[in-house]
Design goal:
heterodimer, A: alpha+beta, Arc Repressor Mutant, subunit A, 3-stranded antiparallel sheet, 5 helices, about 60% helix, about 15% strand, elongated, B: alpha+beta, Alpha-D-Glucose-1,6-Bisphosphate, Chain A, domain 4, 3 helices, 7 strands, about 30% strand, globular
């Protein structure tokens, strides 16, 4: 599982909506998860498969249905990556602020 | 989940001074990279130098005095030196707006993480601990030396 794969997998509004629905930790059947996504059931199925391939969600066969839930580790990696980028920009912008506010020569 | 980040900072300086600190290479090296090689102008691909940590080439895409400045790069510590146009990059944008009290709000946006190619996001995350230490060191030097 790479951070790159996480971002790629989430770079689609339908996949993002699927992940958002699962993000409270609950599990859905594929049928339930496919409702009201704005795409066909086949289209929804394809996006669910893409998320499973990227290791972002897990599929568990349960009787005749398949349960879907989120793998928290994968999203955690993406969050850490974003937090890291944000933190570095904050430091750079603070240095810029210092430069402008502490010196009169610019 | 997000494809972009946005940060804001209020700076007690005029819009002209803030813009100059972002667009004038002699001032940029006082707060971000240690050195800049090449022409720092729209359409050019100057190279940011981070001391012993490496170099990173950027592509300046737009400069609108005194409001907006933007460049593309392969983010952070990948130290990419090829043609920036040949690879997927993130877009770094600076927007400067004047507030009622005369200070400026600087808004930084970096976008395009979802489009990054294989390995870049991950290696950026891993390698950047070095770059991060370097930036902290620079900041400390700056605060204690000035």
């Amino acid at each position: 599982m790479s951070v790159d794969a996480v971002f790629k997998a989430l770079g689609d509004p339908v996949r993002l909506e699927i992940v958002t629905r699962l993000s409270d930790g609950s599990s859905y059947t594929i049928g339930k998860l496919s409702e009201n996504l704005g795409v066909s059931r086949q289209g929804a199925r394809k996006q669910i498969q893409a998320l499973a391939s990227a290791d972002i969600i897990e599929l568990h066969p349960a009787g005749r249905e398949t349960q879907v839930c989120l793998k928290p580790d994968s999203l955690q990696q993406a969050r850490l990556f974003i937090a890291d980028i944000e933190q570095r920009w904050d430091q750079r912008l603070q240095a810029l602020k210092r430069l402008l506010e502490d010196s009169g020569d610019t | 989940m997000q494809d972009s980040i946005q940060r804001e900072i209020v700076i007690n300086a005029s819009q002209e001074r803030v813009y100059k600190a972002i667009s004038d290479p002699e001032l940029v090296v006082k707060w971000f990279p240690e050195t800049i090689k090449g022409e720092y102008a729209v359409g050019e691909q100057p190279i940011f130098g981070f001391g012993s940590h490496g170099e990173n080439r950027i592509l300046i895409v737009k400069a609108t005095p005194h409001e907006y400045f933007a460049y593309r790069w392969v983010p952070g510590g990948n130290y990419f030196l090829g043609d920036v146009l040949s690879v997927k990059t993130t877009l770094v944008e600076f927007r400067i707006t004047v507030q009622d009290d005369g200070s400026c709000k600087l808004t930084l946006t970096e976008s395009g993480f979802a489009a990054l190619p294989e390995d870049i996001a991950e290696s950026s995350h891993q390698q950047n601990s070095g770059g991060w230490d370097f930036m902290l060191g620079r900041l400390t030097d700056f605060l204690s030396g000035q």
